[in-house]
Description:
Layout: H1 2-17, H2 34-45, E1 50-53, H3 66-75, E2 80-84, H4 91-100, E3 103-106, E4 111-112, H5 117-125, H6 137-143, E5 146-147, H7 148-152, E6 158-159, H8 175-188, H9 194-223, E7 232-233, E8 265-269, E9 276-281, E10 284-290, E11 303-308, E12 317-320, H10 326-330
Parallel strand pairs: 1-2, 2-3, 3-6, 7-10, 10-12
Antiparallel strand pairs: 4-5, 8-9, 8-11, 9-10, 11-12
Helix pairs in contact: 1-9, 2-3, 5-6
Amino acid sequence: MRRSVCFTMLFGILLTVVPTSPATAAGDGCDAGFSPRLRCWSAWLGKGAVTVRLNQALPLDTAGDRADLAARVVRQRENLAVQVPAGVTTGEGGTVLLVLAGHRFVDPRARVSRLTPSTVRELKQVGACDPRVRDDLCTVLGAHDREGTELAARPDVATLGAEHSVAVGPAPRTPAASSAAAKNTSAEHSGPDPALIGVAVLGALLALLLAAFVHVVRRSRSLAAPGAGALRASPGSTGGTTGPARTGPGTAPRPGPPVRTGPTRPAVVRTCLHPQGYVEIDRVLHRAVWARPERTPPAPGAHVDVADAADRDADVLYAFPPATGRHTQAR
């Protein structure tokens, strides 16, 4: 649980420190309606090619200069390409834009909205359609809504997605491209991003804190004896730790079954006697060894009888099964 909290904090800090990408600027004054859009696009057409992809219906407004804007686009229509993708209904404004374009691309699964009679007349007046041509695009779209499959069969409308782009030879390397490449190379070798350095430092500090925290928790658990409370160790025990005692010089080895010959005292097992552990006598911990290896050692909390070892310098007690009735009377 504690590790999960620490990792959640680290993730939150990363989200706060790492800079997010700037949002793409919207608008440029070209998203307020049909006529404002047409005004922007007509200005762009004087500088180069413009491709408009209709991803949603575009209504037709009633701006007073709409006819003048349409006439301006018609004079530069070869620079305008309009695409109508699958699943889109153009709306009357989108249909007008499609008629004005010099390059029309319609997906067979698109739907092109009908033009009203007044709009058809306006388009013919600005030269968008040739009234001398039978079944010109204005007349066809003025009858009713059309499916993309119907328009894709016309010579003046291409099927969206069927066009091909082929490059012959490598792209020429212009001075502007060389300058941009040089700037990118310079940026790549200008050094590490300070924000990334900050994230790395924070991550390292949190990792160190987490490791120290885990170490303290594990050490505190190893020092806490189950059920020992505020017990103190006997003067002869090693450091008062409550884990299983180790056999070493000056301690009694794991015995064979000793015989209970001397006096015994009641005690309570506090750690597993496997082979050595600790028992409590008068709220003091004493190291003890189970004297009946042929039997399963008692669990912590069980009552035993303890006796001194034959070697008085061994500093260890022998634990025996409790004498019948002794601990019952003590309770």
